[in-house]
C-alpha cells in the first residue's frame, strides 16, 4: 500500500476535484497533503476518514430537506447518537494508544452537527467521566452500561437560580442510616435542575450535585450522586422525579436540554460518588481532603475536562467558518482592472487582514487545545494512580487555570471569527444553507456552559494572584509543572524593561517580552483591590493560552525557516514543515493578540495589534 498522501487514488487523502477553486489551489506554495500529514499524522487522518465515510454512507445521517420539527430533530439526534455507539469508533485499546481520538471523534461529529456531538459528549465524557473520576470501584458497574447505551446520562449541576455560584446550589441529599439511603430533594422551584443536556427527553440517569447532610443536620457541602431519572425501557420518570424539556434554544436544537425536580427521591448510599468524601453505613462523614476549599475543587474537578474539550470544539467552529469564507473569497470576484477581468476578493489586502489572522488562530488554538488535552490526560492518570505528590496538586491547579482561560479564549475567538467570516461572504454568508448562521448559534453556548467565560477568567486570575501571594508570604518561587507562569518570577523587574524592536524578526521575541511586561503591569494594578480586573484577565488569558502554544513555534518561524515552523501536536515538539515549493510564502507568526498567518504578503510578518477592546 502506498504511503498516505501519495497518488491521486489515496483513499484517505484523494486529490481534490477540479472546480472553481482549482486555480487558487494550484498557486499554493506548499503541498497540502504534506501539511495535512504533518499536522494530524497518518493514524489520525485514517481515523477521521473512517468516521466521515461511515456517516456519509449511512442514510440515517442524510440531511433531510427542509427544517425538522423540534420533536423530530431531537428524536433523530438520539437515533444518530445510538448509531454512533454501534459503529464503535472508539475502542479502549485505541484510546490508551492515542487519547486524542476522543477529542477527534467529538470534533468529527460536531463538523456534522453539534447537537449530535454534544449529546454524545455529555453522555460519554461529561456523565461517564464524572462517574469515573469522582467515583470509585463501586461505581465502575455503570461504565459498560454507558458504552452500550443500556443507560443514558447527563450532568446536572445548574439550577434555576444558580449557575456560576456552584456553592449556592440548593438541592439536598440527607442520609438516612435506618435504610442506608440518601434522600435527594429539591426544596422549591428555584432549586430545580435546569439547562441539563440530555435530561429533556432521553436521560435515564444523572450525576446530580446536591448539598450532603448527615444525621444531626451537619452540611458537608456539594457532592455528586448518581440518580436514576427514568426507566430505561419506557423512558417514564422514576417515582418522585418531575422531569421535562426546557424547549427551543438559540442553537443545538437537536439536543434535549431539560429540567428536573426531586421529591424525596431515595437512592442507595453507594450512589454517592465518593472520591472526595464518603458516608459510613452509620452516617459518619469521612474524607481524606484537608479543607473545604480542596474538597470543593475535587468535587467539581470533572469540569476541567469539559472545558478543555469545549476549547477544541470552538476551534472546529473556527476552522469550518474560515474554510467556508476563504473558499468563497478565492472564487468570489468583485471589481478589477477592467470590467471583463474581475479579481477574487481574497486578493484584496483588506479581505486578507480580516480572514488570515483567524486562519492562523485556528492553527495555534488547535495545537493549544490538543496539547492541553494531553496534559489533562496526564493529570487524570495521576489521579487514578492516587498520586498525592505536590507536583500533581500543582499540575491540577495549573490545568484548572489554563482550562478556565483557554475555553474563553477559544470560544470568543471562534465567536468573533465566525462573525467576521459571515460578513466576509457578503450576502451569501447570510444564506442559511451556507451554515455560518448555524455555526454562530451552535458555537455561542461554548462561551457559557461549563462556566461563563467572564466568571471563568476570574478563576485564572485567582490562581495568578495566589502565586504572588505565596511568593510574598512564603518566599515560594513562581513556577509550575507546565511552565506557563514561570516568567512571572521576573515580576516586578520585568516592569523596568521597555519594548524595543528594530525589525519584524525582533518583534517576534520582543512582543513576547512586551506581553510579559503588560501582564506584570496588570498584575501590579490588580493587586490593588480598588482597580477593576477585566482587562488584565483578558491579557492573562492570551499570555497563558495563546502564548505558550504560539511561542514554541513562532520563534522558529519567519526568517529561520522559510516556510514557518509548525508543531507536531502529538509530540508537543517544535517541528519544521518544509514542504513549500516557494520559500518565504508562508510565515506562521504571532501578534500581540492573536497570531497572524501572512501569505506572501509584503507587510511585516508581525502585527502588533493591541489588546481586544
Ligand atoms: C446550551 C447550554 C447547555 C447547558 N448544559 C448544561 C448541562 O448539561 N448541565 C448543567 O449543569 N448546566 C448546563 N448549562 C448551564 C450552564 O453551565 C450555566 O448557564 C453557566 O454555568 C452560567 O450560569 P448561569 O446561567 O446561572 O449564569 P449566571 O451565573 O446567572 O450569570 C449571568 C451573568 O452574570 C455574570 N456574573 C455571574 N457571576 C459573576 C461574578 N462573580 N462577577 C462578575 N460577573 C458575574 C456572568 O458573567 C453572566 O454574564 C447549560 C447552558 C447552556 C446555555
From TrEMBL:
Cofactor(s) recorded for this entry are: FAD
This enzyme's EC code(s): 1.3.3.6
Pathway field of the UniProt record reads: Lipid metabolism
Task: Please tell me the species this chain comes from.
Answer: Tursiops truncatus (Atlantic bottle-nosed dolphin)
Family annotation (PANTHER family):
ELECTRON TRANSPORT OXIDOREDUCTASE, PEROXISOMAL ACYL-COENZYME A OXIDASE 3
A single Gene Ontology CC annotation of this entry is:
peroxisome
Query: Which Gene3D superfamilies does the entry link to?
Result: Butyryl-CoA Dehydrogenase, subunit A, domain 2 (2.40.110.10), Butyryl-CoA Dehydrogenase, subunit A, domain 3 (1.20.140.10)
The listed locations are:
Peroxisome
Q: Name one GO molecular function term.
A: FAD binding
Picking any one GO biological process from the record gives: fatty acid beta-oxidation using acyl-CoA oxidase
**Similarity remark:** Belongs to the acyl-CoA oxidase family.
In the UniProt record, the gene name given for this protein reads ACOX3
Q: Which UniProt keywords apply?
A: FAD, Fatty acid metabolism, Flavoprotein, Lipid metabolism, Oxidoreductase, Peroxisome, Signal
Organism superkingdom: Eukaryota
Looking at the record, the residues that make up the Acyl-CoA oxidase C-alpha1 domain are 301-465
What InterPro entries does the annotation carry?
A: ACOX_C_alpha1, Acyl-CoA_Oxase/DH_mid-dom_sf, Acyl-CoA_oxidase, AcylCo_DH-like_C, AcylCoA_DH/oxidase_NM_dom_sf
Descriptive protein name: acyl-CoA oxidase
